[in-house]
Amino acid sequence: MSDMIKIVKKIILLVCVWFLFYSACFMAIISWSGKGFNKSYNSAIQRKYDNLISTNDPKIIILGGSSAAFGFNVKRLEEASGYKIVNMGLHAGFGGLFNMEIGKQNINKGDIVLLALEYGWYAENYFQDISVDLVMCGLDNRLDMYSIIPLNKLDGILGYLWTYADKKIESIRSHSYGIVENSVYSIDSFDEKGDMIFDRPTNILTDEYYNKQTSLYGQEDLSNVAISEKSKAYLKEYKLFVESKGAKIYFVGVPLLDEAKVSSDESFQSLANSVNKEIGIKYISNPLDYLFPSELMYDTIYHCNDKGANKRTDILISDLTSTKIIEKVGVK
Known about the structure:
Blueprint lengths: L1 H30 L12 H11 L4 E6 L1 H4 L4 H8 L2 E4 L8 H6 L10 E5 L15 H8 L14 H6 L1 H14 L54 H16 L3 E4 L4 E2 L7 H15 L2 E2 L7 E2 L13 H17 L10
Helix pairs in contact: 4-11
């Protein structure tokens, strides 16, 4: 019996040593040489996070992917609503779980949370996974932001640590990781709050985006879409969390290139109705209002140009006022 106790103690000791060693490696690699990806598009998430946690005035928090980053005139929305606007949208590729969990960090009484999620959020594992590569390069040396990641996903972070270290070294040397030269895809496209300031006056979509048969570009057919049980459960729990903070949560429409849609108009409305009925989060938009012609889009079927961002902002203002979420434009 005593031998068994000794073996157990040795195992516990080894586990503790392994944990301490890996923790030290993690902190050293993350912090080493400061920022390695600070010029990348993904790093704008740091500015957005800092804006979120420092904004304690009544605010509207927008959660989504890049369609949110490209899709709003924040100044226009602030002036119309009387709320501060915190647009957390940047990259759907981070994973639905990360993009939602980061929005929990500073929700206060009287805040409004808007879910502006690209189509696909209803899939089985949409809110279950994170993209370790994109998230780690976005967070860079911000150790404080790693607390956003749920504990059950930290094994993926640790497993990617050495690959991340190699990429960080290369990025420090080249200063080019995650940057597309002469385009919107760098940190210089965002102001200090993480809002996009890159001018997008025209449509630069390539021909493939108009081909509905090309799966990479065509929007998913919503005809037989059912909201997965995992997505329902996650969103119901998220709603309870938001409401426990004294805030309110709503679904809103997302812009989509009209020429790329493959679903019937009824399918869009059916999905919105399912959100209301099966999840209990009110869908305050008519999704068909957000089907935009090409002259309002920029470089993907979800990205607005400047005219499109203004149009989307105006539609959202109308959604918020017509549903009495904001009682009168310019008055909270």
